[in-house]
Design a protein that fits this description.
Layout (H helix, E strand, L loop, with lengths): L16 E7 L18 H9 L1 E7 L5 H10 L3 H4 L19 E4 L3 H7 L3 E6 L16 E4 L8 H12 L3 H10 L11 H18 L5 E7 L42 H31 L6 E6 L5 E2 L5 E2 L6 H4 E2 L1 E4 L8 E8 L3 H8 L14 H4 L9 E10 L2 E11 L2 E8 L5 E6 L17 H24 L2 E4 L7 H9 L26
Parallel strand pairs: 1-6, 1-7, 2-12, 4-5, 4-6
Antiparallel strand pairs: 2-10, 2-11, 3-17, 7-11, 8-9, 13-14, 14-15, 15-16
Helix pairs in contact: 5-6, 7-8
Amino acid sequence: MLIASCTNEPDVTSKPNVLLVSIDTLRADHLSSYGYERKTSPNLDALARRGARFERTFSTTSWTLPSHMSMLTGLPISAHGICDDRLWSMTDEAGNPTPVDQSGVFIPEVLKDEGYRTGGFYTWQYVDKRYGFGPGFETFERWGHTFYSDEVVSAELNRLREAEDKPGIDALRARHPDLFDPAHMSSPETIGRALEWIDEVKADTPDAPFFAFVHLFDVHDPYTPPAPLDTMFDPDYTGTVDGSNITAPDSPFVRDMPKADLDHIIALYDGGISYVDDQLGKLFAELESRGELENTIVMVTSDHGEEFFEHGNKTHRKALFAESVHVPWIVAWPGQIAAGIEVDGATGIVDIAPTIYGLLGLSAPDGTIGRDLGPVLRGEAENEEAAYLQELLLFEGGKETQQRLGILRGADHAVLGGELGGDLQVVHFDLDSDPGQKSIRNASLLSEAAAQQTREELDAMRAAIKESREVNRTRNVGSDSLPTANSQAELSAMGYTDGNQPTKANTSAEKDCELCLDG
């Protein structure tokens, strides 16, 4: 147990480092250590053997922005208030940007007050400062840029396009091939910068522990792993599908595509997992060579999974079934967490922040809803049954049209959905007997007794969220500017915006993002 300092200055000499890795779009059931038949993840498997693996961790939703907000604050979406990237497109009657209210305290804010050096290194714009991320990080940087996000290159490209200067555009592309290559892998850059930062802070403050957050994006589509990983899991494929063009209107990745092509797409996705796993192996080796790994709490997780038409959809941000929200959570801390622990039962990414605090002997901020599972990791307690909430808004024509909720308790997963303002239809799944929720058409509608239990669980969640929002601090984020044309184009290129443009004045009710509290 860590003992607090009796001085005004934080006692940092005995505290471990913390490394939190988020692998974007990584579904748990495609890791070998989670039972996948392909050997996709030898380094993560080894990490699990050295520490603990949580069997059933669910995200709070199926897309990056709100789930990372939950991961870093310990709050479900209705508590932290960020459910929709279009919040940053809203304007008042005069056309000025309106502030977005975000509740919660971020992990680096807590640890910085305890004497930690704090650095964050991310790849995708949904983790950017403009969406409210960054508080508590002394260093917070985006790596793995594209021509959309590189300010200098994007400005030059826009100028050349306006001038209709095709030779100039070709020359620009030739000078910056990585920025214009959708298959460019960004993990080496992000990890390399994180290691460089660790070296810098250790040289500057050798006795201070660090908190490093590393967000990796190479599992996300396009599914274009480099050779030999592009053929590793489907060496005999002879078709034309190559893992690119996944979300475009003319994409070959459609529901009724030939099975061989779909299998190849999944094999390419798995190749991306293997690529990131290899990069993590190098990261762990570098930390070990620096003498840092033995005194570092390593946590690896994901923000959401990925769909391959298991329930009729592709990619993510469409639904809340297990393939979209069941994510890995692996924790290792040599000498403090026993090797080979497997934690059964339900957990959530909202537990990550309070568990970090608990392992460090710290209290979670007031209003935190996630649980401290440190006693479970130390073998001092069993994982008690708890309920976890998933939330999602669906859109059509730029407007919210449907609401999705999920409740995970033990092996029971209730999935609720319906038109906004209407009744929610509910189905139940037993994840022990049906982990892939394959029997959706035969899934039993709730009996009245079960329906009452679901209502009671939602009422309890609403009460906890309401209390959290009352005690938690709220800040205005993203009120200084509207989305840029480049940021909108980047989102559209990845299939996120569906052509939606910034919206004009909206009511305050549309900005609350209290999906669960809507009733």
